[in-house]
Design a protein that fits this description.
Alpha-Beta Plaits, 255 residues, 2 domains, 5 helices, Translation Initiation Factor IF3
Length: 255
Amino acid sequence: MATPDNHTAKANAVLGVLVALGLLGAGYFVSNTLYKGRLASNTVTVKGFAERDVRADLALWQISYSVTGDDLNRLHSQSNTNEAALAAFLMQKGFSREEIRPGDLHVTDLLANEYRSNNATADQRYILKNTVTVRSNKVGLVDQTTHALNDLMAQGIVLTGNNVDFEFTKLNDIKKPVLRAATENAREAAQQFASDAGSTVGSIQSANQGFFSVVSRDTAAAQNTNGEEQDYASHESTIDKRVRVVVTLTYYLDK
């Protein structure tokens, strides 16, 4: 039969074991916390930049014209004639009928405008405007034909607009290699920093991908050392584009 002293001894032994385990656990967590804190303080944040020249694959071309007179019925008929002549011109150049979209007519009554010019006369009362849109993947043909619209003027068509927006729609096809190049550029910067500091580059602590931008190649902004865009010299849309991305990465530094 166990005596009270034996019970006390066993209780003290169990308590001692529990205290020892607690101290060991506390020591581990403190050590692990200090280790993580040391790692977090030994980091470097760098930017990586990459760009790739691409060619637009879609053209949105708007051709506008206007007719002026005092008889709306006659103007509407003349506008239809002009639109048919414009469509025939485009198809003769190589565009399909499906690529040519007629626009909505817009009529301005100068005499109904209280702020009209004093030079406005009854025979020029109405201005009827129309815009024909070409949506085509034949970007080279669009670029070539935009410079041949003088033929329409010889037919008496008064052109008021000739605007093309060239777009690159296949960004998803090149995202991975461009991001890979930007990441490699960032790691090279981190390795240079680590080498100067007598360290080596470890794993990535955090990463932030910037936005992809697609700009006209010939008017692309100058880049500073961080790859940040400056003001554009021009907003003209051209076939040749430049895709850009900037990533921000934070690396652990190992001694």
